Amino acid sequence: MHRVYLKPGKEESLKRFHPWVFSGAISHIEGTPEEGDLVEIYTSKEEFIAKGHYQIGSIAVRILSFHEEEVIDDAFWQRKLRIAYEMRQHIGLTDRPDHSTYRLVHGEGDNLPGLVIDIYGHTAVMQAHSVGMHCCRKQISDALIQVMNGTIQNVYYKSETTLPFKADLGAENVFLAGGSQENIALEYGLKFHIDWAKGQKTGFFVDQRENRALLERYAHNRDVLNMFCYTGGFSVYALRGGARTVHSVDSSAKAVELTNQNVRLNFPEDTRHTAYAEDAFKFLDQMSDGQYDLIILDPPAFAKHRDALRNALQGYRKINVKALEKIRPGGILFTFSCSQAVNKDQFRTAVFSAAAMTGRSVRILHQLTQPADHPVNIYHPEGEYLKGLVLYVE
């Protein structure tokens, strides 16, 4: 196994169990590892400290183990997946007749950096965000079926857009096991079509599950606007919560059709819902003042990297100003950022600035984050990517 030697003092973050080695921390490499190879990491004093997947780029090694004697083999993958599954069992997300949708592996949060696995009924959708996980995809798929003991019959691999394009891996979205096209999953008793083949992420935004359930509690007898609706998750929960009207907006006509499908799946012939394929900012500009008293702002990431941070914060401020200006007195605003480059203080400041610009009295009812099946590794605070506020607007 190739050895990676760190510069003096650069082992401190690894001693605190941070799961990344940055390229700037490396002194030299013994041998010439290929992308995706397992490498061992040593301090400048030649002391073993960790092992993981090597990759060209800013994050040079993603750590799999801090134990020199631990072998990265089939038993390793089974053990890691079993630990992840048992945690989901303990928090009550598995083996439920009304619920078959959850995240099984959340990268660094489950000590498997570069790997995401979402469960949709009998199908697992796997994404690799590192070359190493891509190279291990068949091992992981086999281990997954073994650990899930027959409950998972299909493993769909979807990494065409998540792997580094410079690696030129020729990755294809393909079934690694099974091949069922049954794509309806249950979330707290509601049905959703999951487009794992062509949809965003793994086909559904599992991370907003608890926030959707919270919104259901506030929806009764309200006029709801769900911006950036994608699959219409918030809209479906609002309808079940007894909303008077629900309007869903997305710039993608395909997303609007998927929203309509999910509404029909749960509430056929329900006339309370209408969906619009329009630009969000344009829609907010043109809507009437006081037309809605519950608005959801769940935009795609405005900043995918730190270089875009300033523009992202301006975008969050601008869209929140529009919603806060037009929401009915006594209205409730659910507003989110899923940009990892934007921390919760920066997002909160952007929303505070928006509130101040409108001059309205605004109170925080809830501060939201990602759910328990998207855990944040305590040694990797960067994993806290989803931020949300629920605001009461006088």
Features of this protein?
alpha/beta; 3 domains; six-stranded mixed sheet; 10 helices; Archaeosine Trna-guanine Transglycosylase, Chain: A, domain 4; 394 residues; Rossmann fold; Transcription Regulator spoIIAA
Number of domains: 3
CATH superfamily of the largest domain: Vaccinia Virus protein VP39
CATH architecture of the largest domain: 3-Layer(aba) Sandwich
Identify low-pLDDT runs. Answer: none
Tell me the layout of helices and strands.
Elements: E1 2-6, H1 12-15, E2 20-22, E3 26-30, E4 38-42, E5 48-54, E6 59-65, H2 74-90, E7 101-106, E8 115-120, E9 123-128, H3 131-135, H4 137-147, E10 154-157, E11 174-177, E12 184-187, E13 190-193, H5 209-218, E14 223-227, H6 233-240, E15 245-250, H7 253-266, E16 273-277, H8 280-286, E17 294-297, H9 309-326, E18 331-337, H10 344-358, E19 362-368, E20 387-393
Parallel strand pairs: 1-4, 9-10, 14-15, 14-17, 15-16, 17-18
Antiparallel strand pairs: 1-3, 2-6, 4-5, 5-6, 7-8, 8-9, 10-11, 12-13, 18-20, 19-20
Helix pairs in contact: 2-4, 5-6, 9-10
